Amino acid sequence: MFGILYWWGYTNGVMKIQRTVKLKLQPSEEQAKLLQCTMETYCNALNYISQVAHELGNCRNYLRLHRVVNYEVRERFGLKSQQTISAERQVAAAYKTMKANGNQQGKASFNFQGGVLLQQGRDYGLKVEQGVVGITTLAGRQPMAFSCGDFQRQYFAWELGGATLVKRKGVFWLHVVFSREVEEASEEGAQTAIGVDRGMNYLAVARAPEGGTVFCGGGQVKQQKHHYRRVRAALQTTHALARSASEGTKGAKRTLKRLSGREQRYQRAVNHMVSKEIVAFAASYQRPVIVLEELGGIRQRAKQRKAQRGDFHSWAFHQLAQFVEYKAAALSIPVVYVDPRGTSQNCCVCGAKGTRRRHDFSCSCGYLDHADRNAARNIAQRYVDRRQAELAGDGAGSTAPEIASRGSRLAGGVSIPV
Fold first, then answer.
1. Under 8 Å between Cβ of 53 and 90
2. 3-class DSSP state of 407
3. What is the DSSP string of 254-266?
4. Which pTM was predicted?
């Protein structure tokens, strides 16, 4: 019922981690109307500012945009000063993101789902003891109650930051950012390389130097995805046939609405569990470093059979990596990435190209192992080799992280079904 979003960042010498806690708002009927009106007006202001920025050549400079639109936006839409500034910054940031993604000609558009950005102190205030939050609307500051669980309350002792007002399925939520500083995760002095292979049959396989392994199965996830896909297809077919026959489709529409987002929530929950197991496994070793494959762009590079394309393109590998990163950051465990080419095909003992049949890997040198565990070991070895080359080039006196020497055989692993 109550969720938490995550973010982390770096400052000088320390690392700042953030948690975005979702608070369920309990406004009165009149306050709900004010929140709705404020969100709609803010969204309209965003699109107006975006149009002006587009006419200025997709302006990404907040100060230039501020000088052009600030007073006009406040007069036209009735937004408060800080709300107008937040909207201007949001538009400028959107155009910066578009440029970074290679889209320098398009126009940014905003919808109601994006919510309203709020600055702590200026746009909202949180009174934890009283269970009350004050939110600035077009009609001024409105105090209202909120609810959350004990798990969320553990973050109330952290430093309070900004927030976002959103509405989901008729319920208003406030996503509040809390932050604190921890020791910066650094590769310097790392002693244990934990290789992690991500996939669809096994969502993740993590291997430590002495052979200890964690398997996180993906069979149940596949079954759930296939189930949701079949249900959606059947309902959408029913809805299309009923529309062509001019019949009512209220039942199908209600079911589709109820199922909307359920698959994504299930996948997110699974990725949370898997990432938690990986980080806990790594934390049990001396000064670990978690090594992942850099899979960016794999959907464009890799070819899949038609029957596998649905699973492949719904594979949430990036989300899993993000969850591993933020959970590891809280424990000051560094996460690094290596080139994935050949890690699933090459033998981790002799380096030659082996043979993979489903979950089994074999090599002409006589080495036999689970295919994903072999890949996890290759991933760790690739990082160790890279780190040794870096240290040799710098003339540093420290040593690279440990990994089992080539030629040793792997011990059995620990299986964690998901």
1. no
2. coil
3. HHHHHHTTHHHHH
4. 0.71
The answer to whether the beta carbons of residues 293 and 379 sit under 8 Å apart is yes
Q: Which residues pair with 182 in a beta bridge?
A: 15
Cα 120 to Cα 73, 123, 141, 157, 158, distances in angstroms: 22, 6, 13, 15, 14
Ranges of beta strands (E only) in 245-354 are: 288-293, 335-338
Q: Which residue type is seen at 93?
A: A
Tens-digit pLDDT profile for the chain (418 aa)? 344 555 555 545 677 888 999 999 999 999 999 999 999 999 999 999 999 999 999 999 999 999 999 999 999 999 999 999 999 999 999 999 999 888 888 899 998 888 999 999 999 999 999 999 999 999 999 999 999 999 899 999 999 999 999 998 899 999 999 998 888 777 877 889 999 998 888 889 999 988 888 998 877 877 887 787 788 778 777 666 555 544 546 777 777 777 767 888 888 899 999 999 999 999 999 889 999 998 876 655 666 566 566 555 566 778 899 999 989 988 889 999 998 888 888 898 888 888 888 888 889 888 888 988 989 999 999 998 888 888 777 655 555 565 543 333 333 333 333 2
End-to-end CA distance of the chain: 21
Q: Which two tokens stand for residue 263?
A: 């698959």
CA distance 185 to 190: 10
